[in-house]
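2024-03-11 09:14:02 INFO worker-7 job=invfold-0412 stage=load source=structure_tokens
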């Protein structure tokens, strides 16, 4: 067990300022002061008709079990945090992606290490640049690498296939989020910013669908067009999760959840929409241009959703921003809590871990949560489910 998390550290000015240069260097051009001019804005109707939550509903998480991870895993990646839980049987596992050692580490839901799956030699690895993971109920691990390379393993480490996807845009950059449903792979193909123009993306697929051999089965949803050169990508980015025969897409920019039946691949419009309550009214999304650099616009969009999962009862688990600190028009790291909602969007509780929540999976009566610490460190925590009913319908014992 660990001591209560220190919320005062996570919310202090020292915490936010300590991350300023790291984030700015990754997202923009550095930590020097620059002047910006407004290029395009979009109307901010994000909060229209929403319930506004207060911090009074947030409960602290006072104890958890920390899983011992290799040093090569605990360094935070500015691309995608890599953790996913395998559920659906009594013997559930947690699979952690290791970009540094090009490997997958498998743990039990009690946090004990089981084994490691290596992708091969360092120069010939099948896991050269892991960007995301997904695990099916049957135990198939699907790994997305930068550049669209998809590889599959059994939970025991036996190779089960490999193929490469091409990017729908002109850059060839692919950093996907993936989900698995039976023998179907679902891919949200622009999970992180590629730095490219997206003003021509309107109408392109939101999620692509493939079989385990890489054959296209169609697409789900469509990208909505926004003004400017970079806003379309930022406003449409999100997380995906599968619940039974439904793909849920959680749009980060406005906390809207969209349901797409998987037996209707090709549908562009969701069959159901859930608009989650918000903790604050976001500022209008904007695209800015650095002074003297008209060729380098960037979008400033406050994300309302980070990590996202759905349990066997259809409840939603969302890393939700309390607010986004700003400094010189740059977004710093969000101050977040993990919120739980019913299948119809009713708020069931919000829980404070003291750090940014970057990934979550539900394993019966436990939750596996990846937290970003101060600086670039991450940690994997196992926490007893905060609701009395737990997530028992997920099948983990």
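2024-03-11 09:14:09 INFO worker-7 stage=emit residues=397
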């Amino acid at each position: 067990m660990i001591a209560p998390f220190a919320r005062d550290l996570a919310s202090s000015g020292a915490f936010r300022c300590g991350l300023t240069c790291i984030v700015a260097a990754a997202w923009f051009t550095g930590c020097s002061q620059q002047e910006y001019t407004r290029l395009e804005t979009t109307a901010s109707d994000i909060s229209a008709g929403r319930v506004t939550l207060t911090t009074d509903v947030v409960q602290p998480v006072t104890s958890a079990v920390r899983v011992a991870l290799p040093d090569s895993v605990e360094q935070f990646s500015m691309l995608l945090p890599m953790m996913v839980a395998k559920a659906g049987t009594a013997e559930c596992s947690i699979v952690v992606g290791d970009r540094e050692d090009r490997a997958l580490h498998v743990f039990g839901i009690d946090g004990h290490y089981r084994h490691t799956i290596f992708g091969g030699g360092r120069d010939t690895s099948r896991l050269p640049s892991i960007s995301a993971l997904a695990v099916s109920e049957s135990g198939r691990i699907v790994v997305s690498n930068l550049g669209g390379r998809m590889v599959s393993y059994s939970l025991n480490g036996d190779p089960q296939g490999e193929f490469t996807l091409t990017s729908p845009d002109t850059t060839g950059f692919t950093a996907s989020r993936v989900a698995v449903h039976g023998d179907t792979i679902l891919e949200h193909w622009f999970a992180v910013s590629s730095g490219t123009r997206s003003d021509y993306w309107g109408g392109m697929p939101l999620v692509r669908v493939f079989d385990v051999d890489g054959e296209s089965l169609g697409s789900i949803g469509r990208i909505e067009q926004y003004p400017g050169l970079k806003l379309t990508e930022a406003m449409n980015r999100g997380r995906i999760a599968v619940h039974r025969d439904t793909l849920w897409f959680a749009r980060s920019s406005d906390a809207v959840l969209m349901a797409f039946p998987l037996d209707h691949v090709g549908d562009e419009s969701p069959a159901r929409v859930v608009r989650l309550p918000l903790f604050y009214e976001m500022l209008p999304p904007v695209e800015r241009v650095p002074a003297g650099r008209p060729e380098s616009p960037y979008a400033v969009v406050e994300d309302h959703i980070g990590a996202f999962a759905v349990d066997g009862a259809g409840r939603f688990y969302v890393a939700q921003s309390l607010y986004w600190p700003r400094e010189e028009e740059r977004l710093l790291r969000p101050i977040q809590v993990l919120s739980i909602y019913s299948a119809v969007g009713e708020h069931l509780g919000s829980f404070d871990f003291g750090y940014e929540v970057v990934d979550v999976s539900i394993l019966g009566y436990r939750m596996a949560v990846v937290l970003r610490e101060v600086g670039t460190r991450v940690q994997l925590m196992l926490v007893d489910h905060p609701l009395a009913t737990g997530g028992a319908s997920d099948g983990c014992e």
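2024-03-11 09:14:09 INFO worker-7 stage=report msg="The chain is about 5% helix and 40% strand."
2024-03-11 09:14:10 INFO worker-7 job finished
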